[in-house]
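Two proteins, back to back. First:
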Amino acid sequence: MKKTAELQERTKSFALRILNLIEQLPNTIGGRVLANQLARSATSVGANYRAACRARSRAEFASKLGTVAEEADESLYWLELIRDGNFIPERRIASLVSEADELTAIFTSGRRSASRPQPSKIKRQTSSS
């Protein structure tokens, strides 16, 4: 439970930091496209993680974690475009690029773990013949 709360807070913080960052993008067609796309993907990371935490089954949890990983990776893509296009100096977005990369890795790993078959908890009876 503690890890869940920490990740919920971390994804919320990521979204808030992104929302502050996009205010610094230029008011150009390209800047607005990047701002809108990044805002959508970055805020979806936390929202979808919260939904995953309320999953009704292990399969649903794994599926939702896959969506979270995709949104985190998409956020990384938009951040790379901002950086590589020199819309914002790299030093100002480096920590967000790193965080997006870490979140992608965390949720990708979590999805893989959640997708693995779990050993049965039912003890098998041995026949005594």
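And the second protein:
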Amino acid sequence: MSQKALVVETAKTPFVLKSVPIPKPGPGELLVKIMATGLNPVDHFVQAYDLLPNVKYPIILGCDAAGTVEELGEGVQGYTKGDRVFFVPDLGASSGGFQQYTAISVDHLAKIPSRISFEEAASLPLTFCTAVIPLLAANPVGAGLNPTFDPNVSFKGDSALVIGGSSSVGQYAIQLLKYVGYSEIITYASAKHSDYLKSIGATHVIDRTTVALSALPDTIKTVTSSPIKLVYVAFVQAPEIMEVGYSCLAHGGQMPTAHPAPTKPEDAEATGRKIYGVYASTRIEPNIEFGNLMWKNISKLLEDGVIKPNRIEHVPNGLAGIAGTLPRFEGGSAGINGMKLVLNPQETP
């Protein structure tokens, strides 16, 4: 049996839509019919610029996926055919979301609550991991805000800043800070997203279209008199964003980021400020232990409304719509407008 898949044959070459075999689930795996796939900047930058090291070609990209269980591999328990699941595919095994079926380990997925659609579920996996690992995981992986998902943890009275709050990652960072009880959650984002960002937990929105990045530290002082004990940097494409975020951080504070390897400022040790990067995979050490807990808890967080999926922009034409849509990430958050781009591979012509 064959399926349609979008393949990058060699580095920096165009996508090719082709027929490939439907995989057979191995021990501990599920075969999933993909009903929704989210698009991420990494998909574009790997295809266009060969961004990640040690990529093995040909590769099927796609880091966010949701669908229905079609077949169970040997030894799988707790799942049945027809279950709705969402997950981060294993790109190294060409099990990415840019295809109509994939095999996925049961260790790296969760069931979709009934109130959540496939498209909404596909907005979560990679971007949620990018926020939750550096925020909640224990030191030295992350800031250690709540490594066990204890509902009683509270940072009441503390203030936090999210730079890039309207991005997919930033939206999850805001919600996670609300989850752990921060009293003030300030975000630097476009004012047009203000009402939505406040609805998910932000207490103040500093308009990035009228307040220059360089003016952010002084502007924060007009918003709150409290020290900023935590800064999350969701938008990390420019070095100056990291520098400004760090300058907003109180001595002894923590700065988790969406950057895989942020530079440590010279005065970090002397001022007690800590910076965390993230490689948003629950398959690699040292993320595995926390990742297992995350997958066990994420469905309940969604079911209880603690975490709300991103708002969705549907990409038409299934896999055939990807190549023309991914270049929008060249414009950063301005090219996406606070939405998560999602498609249904089953709609591929």
